Structure formats: C-alpha cells, structure tokens
Amino acid sequence: MAQKTVVQPKAAAAEVEPGVARRIYHDMVLIRRFEEKAAEAYALGKIGGFLHLYIGEEAVAVGATSVMRPDDYAIAAYREHGHCLAKGADPRRMMAELFGRVDGLSKGKGGSMHLFDTTVNFLGGHAIVGAHLPLAAGVGFAIKYRGGDQVIACYFGDGAVPEGEFHEAMNLAALWKLPVIFMCENNRYAMGTSLERALAETEIFKFGRSYNMPCEAVDGMDVLAVREATARAVARARADGTPSLIEARTYRFRGHSMRDPAGAVYRTKEEVEREKQRDPIVLFRERALTAGWLSDTDLREIDKSVNDLVDEAVAFADASPEPPESELLTDIFKDAEGGERSGS
Amino acid sequence: MAQKTVVQPKAAAAEVEPGVARRIYHDMVLIRRFEEKAAEAYALGKIGGFLHLYIGEEAVAVGATSVMRPDDYAIAAYREHGHCLAKGADPRRMMAELFGRVDGLSKGKGGSMHLFDTTVNFLGGHAIVGAHLPLAAGVGFAIKYRGGDQVIACYFGDGAVPEGEFHEAMNLAALWKLPVIFMCENNRYAMGTSLERALAETEIFKFGRSYNMPCEAVDGMDVLAVREATARAVARARADGTPSLIEARTYRFRGHSMRDPAGAVYRTKEEVEREKQRDPIVLFRERALTAGWLSDTDLREIDKSVNDLVDEAVAFADASPEPPESELLTDIFKDAEGGERSGS
Amino acid sequence: MAVMTYREALNLALREEMRRDERVFVIGEEVGLYEGAYKVTQGLLKEFGPRRIVDTPIAESGFTGVGIGAAMVGLRPVVEMMTFNFALLALDQIVNSAAKMHYMSGGQFNVPIVIRGPGGPAHQLAAQHSQSMEVYFYHVPGLKVVRPSTPADAKGLLKTAIRDDNPVIFIESETLYNIKGEVPEDPEFTIPLGQAAIRREGTDVTVIAYMGMMYRALEAADELATEGISMELVDPRTLQPLDTGTILTSVRKTHRAVVVEAGAGFAGMGSELSAVITEQAFDDLDAPVERVTGVPAPMPYAKNLEKAKTPSKERIIEAVRRVCYANGKP
Amino acid sequence: MAVMTYREALNLALREEMRRDERVFVIGEEVGLYEGAYKVTQGLLKEFGPRRIVDTPIAESGFTGVGIGAAMVGLRPVVEMMTFNFALLALDQIVNSAAKMHYMSGGQFNVPIVIRGPGGPAHQLAAQHSQSMEVYFYHVPGLKVVRPSTPADAKGLLKTAIRDDNPVIFIESETLYNIKGEVPEDPEFTIPLGQAAIRREGTDVTVIAYMGMMYRALEAADELATEGISMELVDPRTLQPLDTGTILTSVRKTHRAVVVEAGAGFAGMGSELSAVITEQAFDDLDAPVERVTGVPAPMPYAKNLEKAKTPSKERIIEAVRRVCYANGKP
Ligand SMILES: Cc1ncc(C[n+]2csc(CCOP(=O)(O)OP(=O)(O)O)c2C)c(N)n1
Ligand SMILES: Cc1ncc(C[n+]2csc(CCOP(=O)(O)OP(=O)(O)O)c2C)c(N)n1
Ligand SMILES: [Mg+2]
Ligand SMILES: [Mg+2]
C-alpha cells in the first residue's frame, strides 16, 4: 500500500512536453479569466444565486485532468467551473448557464452550482456537501461492471470529510475496488470553519488508511505535483480498479462565495496575501519559462487567445435568450414531461 | 495516544474481589437465563416482532458495566437485553415490556428493541443501525456541558461501522473530547454479512486512529479483559473527556434474531460449535473457581437465585395486563397528549 | 396464468428483467448470499452471480448513491431497502440526486433506478420499523411511486418500473409477501404506471384503498353488501402519477367517496384524494369525502395497541355508512 | 414595542431564552465565529461563549443526533440547519430518534429540541437549495412544525418552541430575514403553538397562506378589494398542531376558501386544509376549496423560470375570483 506522507512543498521533478505545458498553462489561465469575468457579471446582476470561485485552486483540476483520458469521468461539488472547463466544456455554454440562458449547458436550469456536460463526461455540479462521493463510487461500479478501464476523478472539499457519506463512499470503493480517484481539495476552510475546528485528524490523506486505500498528500499549488500524484493513482485504478485518496493542499484566494468577503473574520488578510504568493499560475509560468517549455511569446499568445475566448463566452451568454417558460415543465421525467406527473 | 494492537486471546491478568466476581457471574448468568426464557416465550407467541438474543456476548456488557458507576450512562442498539440488565433494570419490568404489557418499562409500547430505563440511566434500545452513536456523543456533550465526570458507554455492532453516522459520531466525540466509550461488539457478522464483506479494514479498532482516538481490541469472551480495557477508557474519559474506541471480539451463539436459524447459510455449524467452546460464562466460572474467588456453593447459590429471579420475571409479565387502549394516544408529546396534535 | 405468491411474483419480475436486460442489477443488504431478508431475491445470486447481485454493508446513503451514479452512466439498478424505514438515511440521495438530476442537467442525465422493499405497518415491529413511508416520496417532483397490492400487480408494475427511465420508488409490504394470486407468465406482461384498478364494482360509494387497507376494504364491502350498500373499490396502484381519471369517474357514478390509508393521515394520500375529488367532482358529491386513516401516533409494540393504530374494517364500515346516510338512504 | 427585522427578532428570542435558561445552547454550522450563514446568531458567541454557541463540522446527522442525545438528558438544544435543505441528511435522526423517543420509552424520555433555519424558495439557488421543506415534517407524529411569517411571530414562536418539551421544527425564510415589523420587547412575550392569526378581516373569501405566500396574498387582497371582493386572510403560523378552529370559523363566515402554498402541492398543506375544510364545513361551502400551489417541478435556476415556479399574485387573484363567482357574484 503506497501511503506516502506529505512532501514539503518543492517543485515536482517531472519533465513535460511543450504541448502538455501549453495545455496546462492554457487551461489554468482559462479558468482564472473565466471566473474573473463571472465575478464581474455577478456584480452586474447577470448571474444570480451563489457563485463560488475556484481562483487559486486551478492547479488541482488542471493537473489531475492532464493525465486522464477524455473518456474518463469527472464529478465535483458546487465550486466546479474549473473542473468543467478542464474537462473541455465549451466556455460559451458554461457562461450562458451561469447567466441562466437557454443556450447554457442545461438550458439555464442548473446554474453555477449544477454544471453538467455529457459530451465531455462531466457529471456535475452537486451542491449537497459529500453527496456526490457515493455517486462517484457508482460510476466506478458501472465502469467495473462493464469491464472498462476508465476511471473517475471525484473532487471534493475538506468540508466533505466530516460527512458520513465520505466514509461510506471510501469504504465501498475500497471494499469493491472501484476505479475512483478521491481528490480532496483541502483549502483549509469549509466556509468559515478551519480544518482544526472540523476534524480530529487534520492530515486528511491519512483517512485513506482506515480503508487500506493508497493515499498521499501533495502540494496543490504545484500543478505538476498534482499531475504526478494523479498519474500514480490513475495507473493503479486502470490496472485493477484500486481507488486512491489524494489530498491536494491548496488555498481559496477569494471568499467562500461572492457573498463572502475574501478576508472574512475566519482568516487574516495576511494569511490570504501570503498564500497568494504561491499562485499556481505564476509558479507554473516561471517553471515553464526556466525549463524552456514555453517562451514569452507562447505565453502572451495563450493569454491573448484565452482573453478572446472568455470575451466571446460573455458575448455569447449575453446574446442568448432566457429559456421559454415551457421549460419549467420539461425534463422532470425523461419519457413523459411534467404532464404525466400528478401535481396540483 | 494509546493505540494498542490486539492481544491474542489470553486470560487477563486481573485479580478481582470476591464481591466483584459474584456480581460479574451473577449478571452474566442472569442475562443468559433471561434470554433463554425470552426465547421460550417467543416460541409460545408471548413475545412478537423481532427478538435478538445476546447469548454468547454477555462478557461485553457485564465486563464494561462492572467498572462504571450507576450514574454513568449506557446506550445500545436493538440487541440490548444484556446491557439493560447489566445496568440494573428490573428483569420483571423488562420481561413485561417484551410481552407488551402495561407493567413493562415503557408500558409495552417499545418492546424488545426499545428498552429504556431512566432509573438506571439506560438510554435505549435503538433499532436504526448506527443512529444511536450520535446520541451517545450528545450525552457526552451534556456531561461536559454540565461539568460532570460521568461517562457514557455506547454499544454497537460491527455492522454499524460502515454507516456514515459511525464516522460522524467518532469525529465529533474526538474533536470535542466527549466522554464516550465506543464499544464495538464485533461478533463478525451483521445479519448474514461477514466483516470481510462489509469493511475494507476488518480490524475495527484501527478506525480510532483516523480520529486520533485511543483504541484497542480485546477478547470479548474474557469478561476481565473487557473490564480492564474499559477501566482504562473510563479513566481517560473521567480525566479529561477523552473518548475511546474498544473493539470487543465476540460471537453470537444464536441466529441474528429468532427468525434466523443459528447455523444459517452465512456461517458453518462447525464455526458456531467451535466458538461455543469459548462460552464467556464457562470461562469465567472456571477462572473464578481456580482463583478461589467463588466456591462451588457460591455458584450453585447464584444459579439458583437467578433462576428464581427469571421465573419471577416471567410470572410477573404473564400476570401483567395489556396496556389500556388509551395508551395509544399518550406519550406522543410530553405536555399535551395526542389531542393537541392535528391528525385525521 | 400461474398461481404464485406476491414474493414469487416479485422474484420472477426481477429474473425476467435481468435476463432481458444485461444492464439491470440488484444491490442492497443481504440480497445475495442471504437471499434477501424477506427472501424476495431468493435464487438470484445462483442464477446471476455476484457481479449482478450485489451484497452491501449497512450504508444506505452510500449504496443508494452508488445506484444513482451507476444509473447516470447507463446501468439500471434495482436497489433493495431491507425495509423502507431505512430509506430515510438515503432520502437526500433520492430527493436531491435521483429526483433532480434530469432537471438540473437540463435533460442531459437521467436516473433509471428502482428503489424497492417492504414498507408500511408490519407485525409488532414498533415505532422505528413499522411506518407508512410513501408519504416521504409522492410529493417529490421527479419521483414515481408504486404500491402494488396483488401478486399480478407486483410483477407487472415492477417490470414497468425497471424499464422506466426515471427513479421509481416501489414499496411492497411484509404483510403481503405470502398472499397468493393469478400471475401472467408472459415475460412481456407489464402494467403501465398511473393506471388504477377497480377491485370491485359498486354503485353507492367509492372507496379508495391500496395494499393491506385494500383487502380490509374488501371485507368491509362484503359486510356492507348484506345491508344493501354497494361499494366500488378503487386501488390506485401507483400514487405518483395518480390515476385521477378512474377515481373521478367512479365518484361521479357513486356520488360518495371514502379514502382509506394506513398512514397517520395529516397531509397524506387521503388528504390529496379528498382535495382532488372535491375540486373536480364537487357538484357530484352527496356528502363530503371521508378519510379513514391510521391514528396519528408512532407505532406501538403492544399487540392490542398496534391493532388499534391502523384502520379497522369497522372504521371503514362506519365511514361508508356516514357518507351513504349523510343525505338519506342511498 | 420596537421595530426590528425578522432576523433581529430571532436573534433577540435566542438571547432572551439563553439568558433565561442555562440549559439552552445553539449548535450548528457557522453559528459562532461566522455568526451564522444568514447572521441570525450574530453576537451570540461574544455574549455566551463557545460552550453555548457551538460551531460544528458539516455532519448534519451527527450534530442533530448530538442535540437529541443532549436533550434526552436535560439540555435544551437549538440546532441550526444552515438551510433546511440539509435537514434531509438528518431526517432519520429527527423522525426515528427525536419524534419517537417519548413514545417508544413510554414517556420516560422526552426531547426538548428546536431545529431551526431557513427553508422554502430563495433567490436563484436552484433545485437542491430552494425547496419547501415543511412537507417532510408536519405529517410525523411527535413533531411540531412552525412557519413564522412576521418578526413578532418569529420572536414569540421561537421562544415558545424553545420552552416546549418536545421536538419543534422551526422553518424560517431567507426571503423574510430583512422584513421589518413591530416586536414586543417584553422577555415574557410568547405566542402559543397552534394559534392561527387573522392577517386581514374580510367577508367574501377566506385565504389561508403563510410566509412569502402570505404577503403575496395581502397584495392580492388589495387588488381584489378594488373590484369589491373582501378577503379574509388567515396565517396558520404553526402547521402542526394546526389551528383548524380559527380556519373553520372564517370559512363558515365567508363560505369560500383558497389555500396558497409555495410547495409542489401534491399531498401538501393545501391538500390537508382543503380536506379538513370540506369535511367540517361542507354545507357552508358555496364553492370547492381552491388550491394555489407551486408548479410540481424541481426549482429551476433561471430567473424567469424560478418566478413562474411559485404562485403569483395573479394566480391567487384568479383562484379567488373562481370561488367567488362560482355561484354568482358574492
Ligand atoms: C450537506 C450540506 N451542508 C451544508 C452545506 C452548506 N455549505 C455549502 S459549501 C459549504 C462549505 C464546504 O466546504 P468545503 O467542502 O471545504 O469546500 P470549499 O467550499 O472549501 O471548496 C457549506 C457548509 C451544504 N451545501 N451541504
Ligand atoms: C439503518 C439500518 N439498516 C438496516 C437495518 C436492518 N438490520 C437490523 S440488524 C442488522 C445487522 C446489524 O449487525 P451488527 O451491527 O453487527 O449488530 P449485531 O446484530 O451483530 O449485534 C441489520 C442490517 C437496520 N435496522 N437499520
Ligand atoms: Mg474547503
Ligand atoms: Mg455483528
């Protein structure tokens, strides 16, 4: 059983192809810009409800996805813009979904917390903390049932660990050897509750031991470290379905949601500023430059194309109409529409 | 953190006072006889519903209770006749409860799975697997809130471990240092499901480590071993509220319930017979005789008085009338009766 | 046609659908090696093996979630709740994941899952093990709810539920597993969801009841016949969707309605049926709809109290008399 | 009397009861340091300290069970559900532990617990965070259910709930926290559970509504007044126990009733009220009771769809017109 303990933050050794480096940088910047625009749109009232930004945590979704196949699955909680983009969803349809428009991924019915995209095997977008972990085990079950070699990445926060469903899903996945990669995005806070106030054991990866599940902690700000740890987990899962628990130590640069100020009472401005010094995008940019994987021109070029892509997404969302009122009663049941159901 | 690993079954070193030995033997025999009578009554149709016998596991409840104070609390699942008797409840009122009679502990409204007795701090009697673990944490919370030094023993089966509530209760108790002794009665089966088919980690005591909670496994057939482990846990809990997880390795001599044959498909007759060779009552009787804690006369005398007590309990239950129909609508709410509630 | 028990009918439905569709599997506590706490899955492990008959630890939320996740990517799980009382532990998964997935995803994902097991009052199982559970489900948009009263319905409706592309809550009854009845053997025999059955034709009063209460109403009907009151007995069979058409047609004919349910009654099926009938057949009613429901108390253990908890034949008869003599003899 | 917001009224009720009774404590997610996701517990940690204002990890079943266990041995917990949607994860504890303990133990133990938090439709929170949750509770024997519509009720009813010796489900609303109203400052001001309030007197029709729907009905009343229809508006305030007396008295006066609820409607409060009114005031009714309910769909995110999901002023007005003109002008 690989049960590594956390390596003190030091850049992962890995070498990566220029092509891979380009994709990693592109995806991280895309997530960052996409969410900056979403934040603007929220301020303008174009997006309603809750909006949870992933800014600061991009390395986790991008690093993990970079070693997975398109036919692998991903599922996440409500802070899922990054995972959905990394999986390859169309930013335009995502933004339209956030705007609650008919061209959104789900015709505007789901919104920011419930992004789904069948075309890229992205299974949501779930807003009940911990509830998507058993779903991930179920997808792993289906993969095994069919004899496939796909895997599913299940992203969840440190706040999901005290929930009973974390325990049930971990045990079932380990007991039945389901190809699930439990990726805990430990950003040290669940809303305003710090790890120390939520868990009797704050080194989350250690929970894997209770299930004899391979587990390790990685520097979640180092996209290559996440990439390597995930590669190890994916190899195990593809080989014989062995699940893994990876604790990616990261940090949320913004507030819990747009309704929560970044430097709220539960953490100090100093702490936030300190963590921002380890911006995963900056760290990787420097790394890629020094290693010569990407040139200044490459970076400028990527930045530019990402900006265009995101502006396009906003324009697309703005132009998309609201869903017709008839949509209220569609999609309740697959075969028949609302009509078949008895209501009042 | 004391995190002992399991000691291979060997008699505990402990010396005990003759008085203590007498009580231990008396209580174990009382539980055994009480349930043998209950089984007869069930066959005669005097007891209905589910009847789960504790026969074979007496050493756990008796050993643990023997080092606790009367003002300490105990809570258990639906296989709780033994814990309720060990706590000191009146066998007559217990039998009447099993018979569904008005002189039962709960006027016949609870039955075998829901024994409660405020007078001895026995908090039930719960039939949803795992659900009483958070309740135990709550009692521990109340003890701490009041600044008392009581503890609560929470008895549950191996089958409760895969439930999410096990995890939630363990974490909260450890996080808040609540004086709870989590006593897992590992009889290796949850109905027809063996440990290996239910848990990715079958050494249950090890789950304590995920919560930095002191944990150990003991021979649950050795009443003195259980007594010692519990004494250690009680000392920690009284000192500063530290909770513990004790895995008592025991065995159920009978079927899961009266509806389930003892040697059902999920375990072999041979296994059952082998385990019966380690009958906790026989083991302790021999121990007490060799050590000279109890004489043959003592034992005969205790056996006799227990038989009388149990016969009396049956007679008492037989003589007790059914609850009046008015009881159907009492005890729904404390202040007002059913009347206050709006029904149809 | 063959005569078999309700239990055997369910077992046959599971076998037929598993033979027919490789994507169908059964998952739950004790469904395999133990062959089901109530033996509904008897012999399935032997025929289909551990890949498709999956024993689980006690983790209702976990294995229900596993079923939902598997259904999202194309399998067709039949999740057994050893008894439906335990479904409360999985209710969040059923309501927030299963029932809403299709809607939240704008139709991209659907959850073809059946969650089945015994529910309702049993014999002296007391407060936590003897409850009418349908009340937690039929009001939830996105769920279908079935309560089959006969062996034939058990088979036909379970097969339809398994073929349905949406989550179906299928609640059986411990007290009906042993009843016998004629059951079509045709593997293509199914019964559409949302079709009530007329269990007995009559002219004076419409009684609506299902499961155990349906049988009690039948007894009441015999007794009432001797005093010249002719009862029409309608069994909704599926509570969601509800076949209001058949119910209203009957009420418009008899001008009187009595609804019987084992549950506590407050905002239950009886309330809904009473409201619907009154709204849509107000001018046809000669008397207000009567509700005969369980006493609003937790289920007591004592035999005599338990008996008094659920509607008796006598209470059904009294209610029928009240509606029939409300405005003079029928 | 002082003018304060609904949020401040709840906060004051908590402070007063905690000062009055040392056994009362508050437990839940973010209730302390963060002062409540909706700031209802603002300042409480400062005044009462971490012993009595207890922040919990995300473990609804766990900390609700902790509250129930503590209540069994004499404390009086107020459990905050950050939003009531999450109560589904604790439903087994609420139904099988809290609601039944007193009964199962034959009166030996009781569970004086209040479980409170916001529920009901909010603003674009979508399917999993915007649901009418009372439907899961008011049918459960052993539970009391409160839905306070005004700041004064919020204070008076919460205080009564905390003093009640039984489990009380107290569901607030995110959309009402900021409304202002007169609130008695007397620390002994309480409102008994089971007493409805007449929000507006009228003669032509009785409308029954609570929370947001109550305010919408008030708007409808103004508009209807201009066309000569006089609405009497009854707010039940507590759904369990339900004050049928006040409701029936009003209906017997107006001869017409409309029930409004935000929920999906099937077997909801509207169904129960419609059934009760019809049973007990059948001969007084000039028209069948009308139900105005939310559309039976999960809550959509898109603003326009969300708006169409819950009953509008227009739909209430139409329903009132239907009952009023059913048999000619009032
Ligand atoms: C079961 C449940 N309880 C409470 C909430 C409210 N809530 C939403 S997000 C959140 C914090 C989750 O923190 P974490 O899991 O660490 O994820 P992060 O927000 O840090 O990414 C809480 C308590 C919820 N959505 N679901
Ligand atoms: C939540 C829940 N799920 C299922 C059941 C049905 N059930 C009753 S006892 C039992 C087995 C429990 O085994 P264990 O915890 O090991 O206790 P033991 O019977 O061995 O003493 C099961 C599955 C239940 N009562 N509650
Ligand atoms: Mg977090
Ligand atoms: Mg066991």
Describe the model.
The complex is a heterotetramer, with two copies of chain A (344 residues) and two copies of chain C (330 residues). Chain A is α/β, with parallel strands linked by helices and 344 residues long. Chain A is built from ten helices and eight strands. Chain A has helices spanning 18-43, 58-65, 81-86, 91-98, 132-146, 164-175, 223-240, 269-276, 280-291, 296-319, and strands at residues 73-76, 122-125, 152-157, 180-186, 189-190, 193-194, 215-219, 244-249. Chain A has a six-stranded parallel sheet with strand order 2-1-3-4-8-7, with helices on both faces. In chain A, helix 7 links the parallel strand 7 and strand 8 (244-249). In chain A, helix 1 packs antiparallel against helix 9 (280-291) and helix 5 packs parallel to helix 6 (164-175). The model of chain A is unreliable at 1-8 and 337-341 (pLDDT under 50). With 330 residues, chain C is α/β, with parallel strands linked by helices. Chain C contains ten helices and 14 strands. A seven-stranded mixed sheet of chain C has the order 3-2-4-5-7-6-12, with helices on both faces. In chain C, helix 6 (212-226) links the parallel strand 10 and strand 11 (231-235). In chain C, helix 1 runs parallel beside helix 5 (151-163), helix 3 (60-72) runs parallel beside helix 4 and helix 6 (212-226) crosses helix 10 (313-325). Chain C is globular, with a radius of gyration of 20 Å. The interface between A and B is medium-sized, with 24 and 24 residues. Residues 157-159, 187, 189-190 of chain A line the site of one magnesium ion (MG).
